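Worked example 4.2. Below are the chains of a multi-component assembly; read each line carefully before continuing.
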Amino acid sequence: MIVLDRVTKNYNNKSPALKKISLKINAKEFVVIIGKSGAGKTTLLRLLTREERQTSGKIVVGGIDYDKLKDRNIPMLRRRIGVVFQDFKLLPNKNVYENVAFALEIVGKTNAQIKKTVPRVLEIVGLTGKEKSMPAQLSGGERQRVAIARSIARQPKILIADEPTGNLDPKNAWDIIKVLEKINKYGTTVLLTTHNQEIVNKIKRRVITLKDGQVVGDHAKAEYKHT
Amino acid sequence: MVKLLEITLKRSINTRNMKISMTFGRILKNGIQNFLRNITLAVAAIAVMTITLTTILILIITNATLNNTISQINNKIDISVYLKDSITVQQKDTLLTQLKNLSEVKSVKYISKDQALAIYEAQNAGNKTIQSATTALGINPIPATINITPITPNQLEGIKQFLDEPSVVALQATNSSYSGALQTAINKIAKTTRLLREIGLISIIVFGTTSVLIIFNTIRMTIFNRRDEIQTMRLLGASTWYIKGPYVVENIIYGILSATISLAFVEIMFTTISNSLQASSFGLLDISYSQYYFKHNFFYMLLVIFSIGIIIGAGSALVATRRYLKYKTKR
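Applying the procedure described above to all two chains together yields the following C-alpha cells:
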C-alpha cells in the first residue's frame, strides 16, 4: 500500500511542485495519474522512488516510512519498486539482454535464474531476437520496451511508469499498456502517468488528476476530462 | 540439534561466500566489458597516464643519476692533515681516535712518511727533476699524512674547526689541505651539489604531484562523461560497491597498461640512446649510469610505476564516482 499524507515538495523556493497531497493506493491497484506538464506528476513519482525528498508530509510505501529510511537502505527500497523512466535510462554500454540482466544481477540472482528470466521478459515485451542490440541501435519504442522489461524482470510489488507511451505511435503505446495490465493482473501495483487521453478512456481505471501540484480529481474507472 | 544448527550455519556461510564471489566476478566482468566498450575513452586516458608515468620514471632515473654524480664528486673531496716528524706514536694514535670520533667524519686514513713518499714519487714518476731532488736530499721530505673523508662536503667546516684548535695545530707540519683557494673551491662544489640535490627532490615532488593531479583529472573527466549511467544504476537499486567496482577495475586496467607502456618506452629509449651515443654524458647526467640504474633497479621501478598507476587509477575512480552516488538529502 502507498500512503501519502499532506506531502509538499518545494524546489528552490519557487512555487511548490506538490502542495499537501494526500493519497492512498491499495496493493494490486492500477492507477493512472494525469495532468498537464508541470502539474507535479513526475515529482510525485520521484518522491516515491526516493530520488527526491518531500519538504513536508509523510510517505509510507509497503510499510516503509520514508522519513525513517536510512541512506544505506535506499537500494533495498528501489529494488522493490520497478520504474519505467520517461527518458528510458538504459545503460548505453550494455546490450538489451545485459540491461535487463543488470536489474537481476544487483539483487543477487544467480546466472541460471538470469538466463531463465531475461528471455521470458523480453518475450513479454516483444523483443525476442534483439538481445544483442545496443540501446543506440534501437527505436524509441524498442528502448521503451527494454525499460519495461527491465522494470518487470524482478517482479516488483510496485511498478511506476512515467509517461511510458509518450514517444510511441498508437499501436506501440497500446502494446505497452497491455503489458502493464498483464503485470497488474499478476499482482503488481501499477502507477502510470500519461498524457494520452485515448488510453485513459480505454482502460477505465482509477484516475488521479493533478493540477498545479494538487489533486483535483480522484475517480474510479474514470474517463479523461480536460483539466 | 547442535549438528543441525552447525549444518545450517555452514550452509548459510557457503551461500554467502558464493554470493560474494559471484558479485566479485560480475564486478570484474563489468569492468573489463566497460573497458572494451569504451575503447576511445580508454585510449585517451591511457595516453595521458602513460605520459605522466613516463615523466615520473624519467625523473626518478634522472634524480638517481644526479645523486650518483654528486656522490662521485663528494667522494673525491677530503682533507689532508700533514703531521710534524717529531710527534710520537701515542700523539698520532690519539689524534686518529679523536678524528674518528668526530660526527662529521666518514673515514680516516693514516699514511706514513714512507707511504707518502712512495705515493709522491709515483705521482711524479715522469718528472726526473723531482725524483733526483728527493734522492739528493738523502732524507724523506714528505710528512706523514692523515686523509679525512667527510660524510658530506658541507661538513668540512666542523672538521676544520677541530683541526684549528691550538693543541691540534701544534701537531701539524703545515696548514691542512682545506685552506686557501682550495677551501673556497670545495665550498663552492659543496654548495652546488647541495643545491642540485634540493632541485632534484623539489622537482620530484612538483612533477609527482602534477602527474597525480593530471591522472586524477583525466579519470574524473571519463567518469563525468558517464555520470548518467552511474545515476541510473543508483536508481535501479544497485549497491555502492556494485556501481563503483567496475569503474575501479576499468581504471586499474588503464593503470596497468599505462605502466607497461611507459616502462617499455623507457627501455626502448635507453637501448636507442646507448646504440647511437655509445654512453656519453650530458654534463652532470651520466647516461650510462642512468641505463645501469634502470637495468639494476628494474623491479623497483616496475613496483613504483605499477603502484602509482594502479593506486592512482583506482583511487581516482573511487573519489570521482562518489559525487554521483550521493542520495539527495535536501528536503
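Take a moment to check your reading of the output against the notes. Chain A touches chain B at residues 49-56, 71, 74-79, 83, 85, 89-94, 102-103, 105-108, 110-111, 150 (CB under 8 Å). The helical segments of chain A are 41-48, 74-80, 96-105, 111-124, 140-153, 170-185, 197-203.
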